[in-house]
Design brief:
Elements lengths: L3 E5 L6 H12 L2 E4 H9 L3 H8 L1 H15 L5 E4 L8 H10 E7 L2 H7 L14 H16 L2 E4 L4 H16 L2
Parallel strand pairs: 1-3, 1-4, 2-3, 4-5
Helix pairs in contact: 1-8, 3-4, 4-5
The structure holds shikimate-3-phosphate.
Amino acid sequence: MKDNIVLIGIMGCGKSSLGKQLAKRLSKTFVDMDAVIEKEAGMTITQMFETFGEPYFRDKETELCRRLSKQTGLVISTGGGIVGREENMTALGETGTIIFIDRNPSIIIRTINAEKRPLIRDNPQRLLDIHKQRLPLYRKYADRIVPNNRSFREAINRLMADITENSER
Ligand code: S3P
């Protein structure tokens, strides 16, 4: 059993809120990749996109994947675009079980804070196209898929059941 848990999925699918709770229940350390990148750079992701462009952010993301893959005892919430580079997933997959949090984008669009997300800030509907493009990648890289279309409680219970079941094998 790989020691880290890596949550992937589209913006607003629940990676951070589920990850935080999961880490608590599993007594692991929660890492929100976007928050680490923002803290280390001393600016928000939106500012980073505006000042240095998206590729700069993507390089920071890849570099962080490499670092995190050398650690253990983590629940990692990734940014939605993590699947765009294969090397990210190879690194994270070395020490982590990858779980795709699968949430219907039409539910997400109703609740997401687009302001904090430069890719959809000007046009939240764009989330639907991004979802279409990335869905095959989330599926490809997932060791397991956990749906999150109903309550938080149901999703966290499914996640916990999935992890406990598979650690007993
Ligand atoms: C992105 C998702 C964001 C953040 C950045 C780019 C993406 O993270 O990394 O705005 O490409 O989908 P969340 O998935 O946590 O919103």
